[in-house]
Design a protein that fits this description.
single chain, 4 helices
């Protein structure tokens, strides 16, 4: 017999009900920051290559990277580097079989996020 309630059933897990745990959120963020760091490395290599090419081209690229948008990208890259490094240290700890229970994963996820913000801020203060 046909299901008469086919159009009224919620999707499972429904996006308004299901809350993604911190473990998967930090895993997704780790992958995103890894891609972002690769793109930032391309920008830095572009800056170095422009310096080797000509003074005019270097001035053009330097103008882009020192604009408000370029500075925003570099500060974001600094946070991404901090986050990616701290989360990788956490993964190394997991490789030893430690801190893998759900409450500890939740706590360490928040510690990695908070510590990455603090580390990026300290590095930014040192740079400036």
């Amino acid at each position: 017999m046909a299901d008469v309630n086919r159009g009224n059933r919620p999707l499972s897990p429904h996006l308004q009900v299901y809350r993604l745990p911190m473990g998967p959120i930090t895993s997704i963020m780790n992958r995103i920051t890894g891609v972002g760091l690769t793109l930032a490395a391309v920008l830095i290599v572009w800056w170095f290559a422009a310096g080797a090419y000509s003074p005019e081209y270097f001035a053009f690229v330097d103008g882009i990277l020192t604009s408000w948008f370029g500075i925003l990208v570099m500060v974001g890259s600094l946070w991404a580097l901090s986050y990616h490094m701290l989360n990788s240290i956490r993964h190394l700890i997991w490789d030893t079989g430690r801190m893998m229970d759900v409450p500890t994963v939740e706590k360490s996820s928040w510690v990695v996020i908070g510590a990455s913000l603090v580390l990026a801020l300290v590095a930014l203060i040192i740079i400036i």
